[in-house]
Amino acid sequence: MDRSLYPGRPRRPLLPLTAGLCAAALVSGCSAAARTSSIPAAPAARTGSAASGQAAAPPRVTNELQTDYQNTIKNVLPSVVQIEAGNALGSGIVYDDRGHIVTNAHVVGSKKSFRVTVATREQPLTARLVSSFPQQDLAVIKLDSVPQGLKGAKFGTSSKVGVGQIVLAMGSPLGLSSSVTQGIVSAVGRTVTESSGQSGGTGATIANLVQTSAAINPGNSGGALVDLNSEVIGIPTLAATDPDIGSGGSAAPGIGFAIPVSTVKTVADQIIKNGKVTHSGRAALGITGRTVLGTDLQPSGVAIVSTTKSGGARAAGLKAGDIIVRVGSVRITDIASLSEVLAGEKPGRQVTVTYLRGGSSKKAKVKLSEM
């Protein structure tokens, strides 16, 4: 997944947050404890009444914020589960009291059955796949047997999510179940593209992601990003990596992304009701395409391989062999850039597509269909 977060800066790969089970064993082993024991304790500060033998009372605002944190954790954490899908490990959120659990499509992968550890039981339960929607990297699974006391989380509203808002990330990073980290909403409306293949992602381009500074790590995928009203506002899904650190890149601290709750509810509700997503809300040109290179051997456009019968591209006169180089005012260099433009559009809208045919530049008005 490559996505330039800031103009003029190197493109930062984005990695899905599913952990292998072997990673959990390393983290929970003795090496972590050894590092902790080697750190000397800092001397206690001696100010005011503390110097006279009485502990200084913490500021009232600190107590109130801590209470908000603890109440939120108490309310939401019991609805966050750990999911084992073969050798992969991820998280999920209890969606309702019937045993439906929403998670990431890249957590379930190609698996149909799972082991799920819920807060009310020590032993894992079995679950089956209801449906997966890789285009938005979301999936719903269902417990085969619903345990007593299973509680669905409360899902919030995307329109109320704002930059600077305090959030908590809950899940099973590196297999450490029921872990909680805190941060803020760093930005909203991000559009990023996942990796695919061996990296574990679906390759989906997802719009309107919530960017957060809360620490999220492999295993957090499918978990909960919540506000201090105890409402889920997103599902942590991606982490940025810095390719300048190490041979394969390293995690960029404080840059994580979550699928917005509006998208989560739209997809989950359709899957639970119909067994699949019937209306994606995602715009499409109605083509299959491939990235083509220019004379400088750099990506220079998307060649149309085929058009769908009911798609807008065919209706507008585009055909196989045409090379799309611009949608509206946005330059198209590869499949990822085309996907990112379409992720921000709506089905039914009309866009101007600039394309090359036989070396000549042409334009067409294309009515976007639904993915």
What can you tell me about this protein's structure?
This protein is α+β, with helices and mostly antiparallel strands and 371 residues long. The protein folds into 3 domains: 2-22 and 153-274, Beta Barrel (Thrombin, subunit H); 77-143, Thrombin, subunit H (Beta Barrel), CATH 2.40.10.10; 283-370, Pdz3 Domain (Roll), CATH 2.30.42. Helix content is 17%, strand content 39%. The chain has 7 helices and 23 strands. It has a 6-stranded antiparallel barrel. A 6-stranded antiparallel beta barrel has the order 4-5-6-9-8-7. Strands 17, 18, 19, 20, 21 and 22 form a 6-stranded antiparallel sheet that branches. The two termini are 20 Å apart. Mean pLDDT is 82; it is low at 1-13 and 20-52.
List the helices and strands and how they pair.
Elements: E1 2-3, E2 12-16, E3 19-20, H1 21-27, H2 30-37, H3 60-76, E4 80-85, E5 88-94, E6 100-103, H4 105-108, E7 113-117, E8 125-133, E9 138-143, E10 166-171, E11 179-193, E12 205-212, E13 224-227, E14 232-242, E15 250-260, H5 261-274, E16 283-284, E17 287-293, E18 299-307, H6 312-315, E19 323-327, E20 330-331, H7 335-343, E21 350-357, E22 360-367, E23 369-370
Antiparallel strand pairs: 1-2, 2-14, 3-5, 4-5, 4-7, 5-6, 6-9, 7-8, 8-9, 10-11, 10-13, 11-12, 12-15, 13-14, 14-15, 16-23, 17-18, 18-19, 19-20, 19-21, 21-22
Overall pLDDT metric: 82
**Rg calc:** 23 Å
The second-level CATH architecture of the largest domain is Beta Barrel
- The CATH class designation of the largest domain is Mainly Beta
Structural class: alpha+beta
The end-to-end span amounts to 20 Å
Strand content: 35-45%
The geometry reads as globular
Number of domains: 3
How many strand segments?
23
User: Order of strands across the widest beta sheet?
Assistant: 10-11-12-15-14-13
Number of helices: 7
Helical amount among residues, as a percent range?
Answer: 10-25%
CATH-level-4 superfamily name of the largest domain? Trypsin-like serine proteases
CATH fold descriptor of the largest domain? Thrombin, subunit H
Show unreliable segments.
1-13, 20-52
